[in-house]
Amino acid sequence: MIVASFIMIVGIATVAVLSHREGYRLGGVMTLPLLVIYTFREPLSPLIFVVGTTVAWGALWATREYTLNHGRRVFLIAVLTGAFATILAAYIISVHTPVYLPFADAEAVASIFPGVAAYNLMRLDADDRAADVGLMVALFVGLMLLGVGGLFYFEGRPIPTPPVLALPTSDFVTCLGIEPRCEAITQITPHWLAVALLAVDVAIYEGVRKRYDLRLAGIIVIPLLAVFSVRLEHTAALFAIGATVVFLLLSSIHWLSLLYGRVLLGLSLTFGSLYVLLIGSFTGTAISGLTLFFLGLFVGVAAYNLHRVSPSNRTASIRLSASLFVFFYAVLLVFVQIPPTGLFYENHLVYALVGLLVLSLAGRDLYRLEQSHPSLAAFARASVFANVDVDGADVETSPLVYTDGDSSPSDQTNDSTPTHTREEE
Length: 425
Fold this sequence. Notes:
single chain, mainly alpha, 15 helices, disordered C terminus
């Protein structure tokens, strides 16, 4: 786990510095270091990543050339097409070649990053893309060499943290002749169920963000946190403590230095990785290294998203995220047999009462957010484009409000606030 965390921290820091000083994106803050981690687990990961990124880039090109979609919608198109291509490529390789690619809980995280890389590449000027791709390749090779050196350095030495790279399922480590540590981790949640939960979470996350302009913990954080809780009962508690600590650190750093954007996200991910590294040094192999490793990334992402939420809506963001966790875990309870170390294996009444309390608080927040929407008439009066007369703007006279009498019923919205530039962040 020490080597994997070091790869992540060095990779995140390098991307943040190059992004802040030179304007390069390098596929995203944690795309390349995560690709390196996956490559140690499966050497064909770069090939699958390139396939997913290429398909996502093609979808972005077609979207930009033939549609008027823009902003957040374009990002979602890239993520979804990249994820579909990644999963399909892994399935084809696994079924039609002798190579076996286990798509376990941890591997589900990788499916979104080809789309993220393609989106970041598209946002660069055409003259800078070749240099950005070259830097991506150079950083990938450098992080691979760093990981290989770290593995050989710690070979045969006592390590207080659980392994992430040196596992029996890590093919690249086996090729290096390094002796694996610990036992292979068995997959508990079915592959199809993990992917289905991710798809539902993306729809809910984007729906909440579009309608209420509210960020939740992360676009894939909550369902995977529920999946990891099947294996380890205290995953959610460790996540909540870590996210709180990292959020307080981020708020202090932002207040003192005014750092923001990718640099602040990089710091958040670094703090999350250091947090789980500290936990792993105390628990040893009692907790899976992969679980801790990804938990650190989830902590960093959630803390950064919470920092981006306005102070008045932070409690609503926390409660809605917690209610999503309850919902996803309830679904898992239906389809998955919980092991003795998992959440809800014991203390059913206590956990059920806590879950009901979380759902009730989230329901109250949803009601408050829904009530905060202005009526159509109020929106028309506030529009600078409305035709203002003696009695004020009218719904029928506002060019930004569609009613049943309009000639373009396909443009009607059921929301009291039409879709506009709130989603263009």
